[in-house]
Amino acid sequence: MIISIEGIDGAGKNTLVRAIQRETGAQALAFPRYEESIHAQLAAEALHGRMGDLTDSAYAMATLFALDRHGALPTLERFVDSDELLILDRYVASNAAYSFARTADEGVIGWVHDLEFNRLGLPKPDLQVLLATSPETASQRAIARAEQDQSRERDRYERDGGLQKRTYAAYERLAAENWAGDWLISAEQTDILKAITLKR
Prior knowledge:
Rossmann fold; 10 helices; about 10% strand; Thymidylate_kin-like_dom; transferase; kinase; nucleotide-binding; ATP binding
């Protein structure tokens, strides 16, 4: 089965994914796949101001992130209807939340759903977890992380506090609507592990 951990930058997704791995023996995959995906690498260059006006288009950026996930389709498909557990650090909902936060376009949420789940054939997750970390706390963590690690310089999205707040609100909306499947909103590892156990 596939569990996606969602949240804004600095929410603590990576920390939670590693904790769940230790508890369950699950495999993990993080998106964007900056080390191996040309689409993710191009998106990163754009977010650091090296691709001209590419970031001005929310649809263009969303397409790059979607194509990055499509490149991992063989890995994702192995966990569909499987006894094995795959934990994702971000998945399709991140594209929907950030795109809506950037555009306020009601249609972009459905567009992301159609692009990734229908046209690109990505499997829907069995559970999506929104980390209930406030935008203020997440921002402080992202700043501290960048100060401690030169390789973690904040990108255009991370530096935009207003975008992070709007994205968190968009995530809350997706969770309330059970967009693309079941959701859990929590910051407690025990709640998340219990939900995963019930799903299995």
